[in-house]
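hiii so my PI (J.) wants the whole complex modelled not just the main chain, which honestly fair. so below is everything: two entries, each one labled with what it is. i double checked the lines twice but i was tired so who knows lol
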Amino acid sequence: DAGITQSPRHKVTETGTPVTLRCHQTENHRYMYWYRQDPGHGLRLIHYSYGVKDTDKGEVSDGYSVSRSKTEDFLLTLESATSSQTSVYFCASQGVLSYEQYFGPGTRLTVT
Amino acid sequence: LAKTTQPISMDSYEGQEVNITCSHNNIATNDYITWYQQFPSQGPRFIIQGYKTKVTNEVASLFIPADRKSSTLSLPRVSLSDTAVYYCLVGVRNGGSQGNLIFGKGTKLSVKP
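here's the output for the full assembly
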């Protein structure tokens, strides 16, 4: 399996506070993704990156921003967390010639 | 974007063959069909991918008719450990500049002893 980790694995935060989730991959994959997963919705794409400093919005990008300053790291920031952003967040990476996305273990975020 | 429709849930018993069908009426010429498996509290894991006809690997088979408007994931002789959610995705084969890999709600497969 591709080496992809997420930190933190669990986080509880209060409404209105900023939160940053980190995704780290050791496979030198070009593409990286952030998804959220909620009951009844499956996985939904938040943002993705197709290279260092190259990012674009996904299906549910409102309230989220991302940054990718290095190939191996993809950060997801909630500028001002809301209760609707309580979810499980998954990061994934994919190589240029690969058709498979490798997922991290997920981060469970609770906004109170 | 090609959306997919698959059953919400399925039940099976150990040792049976399970077939999960996915509809994708608006599939484009360049789209591939990919299936992922997700266990509770884990990220999804790639199972199989195909473009047309039949693809088989050590885990599953994927059947795609000529019109490619549907596909069927076949799991031979399931065991309790195959209990998971299975996602059907349709999109271009390579990485995410298009950002169009859409995970639907998936099919929750429950395998009983």
